[in-house]
Model the fold of this input.
Amino acid sequence: MSRRYAYYPGCSGQGTSREYDSSTRAMCQELGFELIDIPDWNCCGSTPAHAVDHLLSASLVARNLAIAEDMDVEGIVTPCPSCLKNLKTSQHRMLRPEFHQEVQRVLGRAVRADLPIKSVLQVLVEDRGIGWIAQQATAPLTGLKVVPYYGCIMNRPPDVMRFDDPENPMALDNLLTAIGAEVLPFALKTDCCGASLGTTRRDVVARLSGRVLDAAAAAGADAIVTACPLCQMNLDMRQAQINKANGSSHRLPVFYYSQLIMLATGQQGERVGLDKLCVSPFSLLESLGPQAGEVRS
Amino acid sequence: MPATTLTNSYDAAFVAEVRRESEQNLALCYQCGNCTAGCPVSFAYDFPVNQIMYLVQTGRKMEALTSHAIWLCASCETCTTRCPNDIDVARVMDVLRHMARRENLVAEHSIHAFWNSFLSSVERYGRVFELGLMASYIGKTGRVLTDADLAPVALRKGKLTFKPHDIHGVAEVRDIFKRYREHRS
Done:
């Protein structure tokens, strides 16, 4: 049975993480989720808004919640952990009636703020189940050694996010194992990559993301798998910057998990967006054997 | 940490304000240091996060609000997740940024400029226009070489667009900013 969700793509999905957006939409279609974009959605304000004012942040979020409340859906999903944290934190704070009122005044309309809000990863695991997804993997990624990198806020703070374990999450581990990849233990799976400091304090990101790359390589991984646009950008697009700053020479492809699920279910082409990755994954995928080697075509 | 002097001694109004805005009971912090042990950005801080908590507890407003640490905090929520007394430490850091901004005590100008550019983009278009955001940030800071090495890569990969993604309801988003400013003034 198809599940209907309001989809909040997030701004990066239209730019630096467009392959996350396109592969997420395609993956959901394949796995029986109907995603309907929240019409005319606006930016949630991301880190800058909550760092400037919680009322501004919640009001920007609330416009999207209010629009979604007029849709015939069972909840809101987003692929981006930063959007997710803003949506869920704002909703959580609106449990306090006084704050809820303030937000409605600034928004200029009523909002219930009661729709369930989840990550795409969460509905995949909870609505479909790992076992079912394993059955869909007709082209398992046998031989691909990966480390799962959740980033810091997919599961944090736990009393707001309410999904998986905040210190040792397993959703991605289980999902990637189910589609045939060899998932290596990874101590840094929830450590911060430096997030939005990439532009302003490159030194901080070089150190934090550098640590993630070093640990992935030391674990023997062929690639890193993420669920966060900012983590992916720091580890992939900035990998050359980081190598230069740290004197390292990593060439680690950094996939979105949605791309790998597409490959494992036999889907290829533009929607998977492998050519959008800065560190090319093609020679790695070709080395896995004939099945994965077809991804170029 | 510098010694307490007449100019940085206990400011009760400051403590009350942080407590009210963060909705956290700051007295619960017994300085176990768990937040600092888990903080990924501690190496770049002038005060580790447990000392920021201490500055707040002891009412040392100027030292807390002029610290670099509150701006370098990446909002990763590790401190909040690990606090044994359930203090939302990341929220306290957020509130200190709000206060420093209001009182013109910002220590990290480039980060502040980046956030302002980001929010200007949201106010103008309803969504973030990455190229416009970078141009505005460079205009504010004069850092012309910011990520200049990434631009060709992002362009080649079709990840930079030259047209803002403006939305139909941009007037509604601008009204949110307008009413928010009225509310805060």
About this structure: The first helix of chain A runs from residue 18 to 30. Chain A touches chain B through 61 residues (CB under 8 Å). Residues 98 and 223 of chain A are 47 Å apart (CA to CA).
